[in-house]
């Protein structure tokens, strides 16, 4: 695999957005978040640094000649770059989509720094409005959890309908658990992971409050059921760390 995720200057900013006491407001992917996002996600999402290079491996395995790859909710382009390096030079195209102007602007920076000839089309739009066609690999990397639950099946159905037989969806999500005891344990371990990465109790508490009405997690069973309803099959978990998982969902051949 190619080491294509070397950070440029914007990636060096330390996430201190919740370090001081402040009025509660919903989390938004605005310019302040975009500035510190690489540090934020590295210190907040267990396994993120493993998932990204594996997206390259999965893309290399399932990308079909002459098809499209989509990174829906591309943020700063980490998974976009992983897909780019995993795509064969066989008439494939790659599209990254995010509805945040600040994210797309910084994503363009990272795409430009990456030494790879495959063009990347970046679209600043809502993924619910994105035209999807002739896909063989689509990535939703911690994106679906921010979509209105009532519209998640609609989005996944459009992806499934646009995916070639044998194609795949990579779906990474924060999940919740059926058992209250397991939910409490996994949440505790996630918070300890964040403490180990330098976040204070205040930062953890304020970030959790900001995300409460914005990031809506679901159980693994709910994800499996919806993916099958959408038209995928053979849904499997290929990675889990605490309450963060990544799944593969296949379009029947």
UniProtKB/TrEMBL annotation:
Database matches in SUPFAM superfamilies: S-adenosyl-L-methionine-dependent methyltransferases (SSF53335)
Keywords, comma-separated and alphabetical: S-adenosyl-L-methionine, Transferase
EC number of this enzyme: 2.1.3.-
EC category name: transferase
Alphabetized InterPro entries for the sequence: CmoA, Methyltransf_25, SAM-dependent_MTases_sf
Keyword S-adenosyl-L-methionine: yes
Keyword Cytoplasm: no
Catalytic activity: prephenate + S-adenosyl-L-methionine = carboxy-S-adenosyl-L-methionine + 3-phenylpyruvate + H2O
Pfam family, one: Methyltransf_25
All copies of domain Methyltransferase, residue ranges: 71-167
Binding-site list for S-adenosyl-L-methionine: 48, 73-75, 98-99, 126-127, 141, 208
Assembly mode: Homodimer.
The protein's role, per its UniProt record: Catalyzes the conversion of S-adenosyl-L-methionine (SAM) to carboxy-S-adenosyl-L-methionine (Cx-SAM).
PANTHER family per record: CARBOXY-S-ADENOSYL-L-METHIONINE SYNTHASE (PTHR43861:SF2), TRANS-ACONITATE 2-METHYLTRANSFERASE-RELATED (PTHR43861)
Protein family per UniProt: Belongs to the class I-like SAM-binding methyltransferase superfamily. Cx-SAM synthase family.
NCBIfam families linked: carboxy-S-adenosyl-L-methionine synthase CmoA
Name of the molecule in the record: Carboxy-S-adenosyl-L-methionine synthase
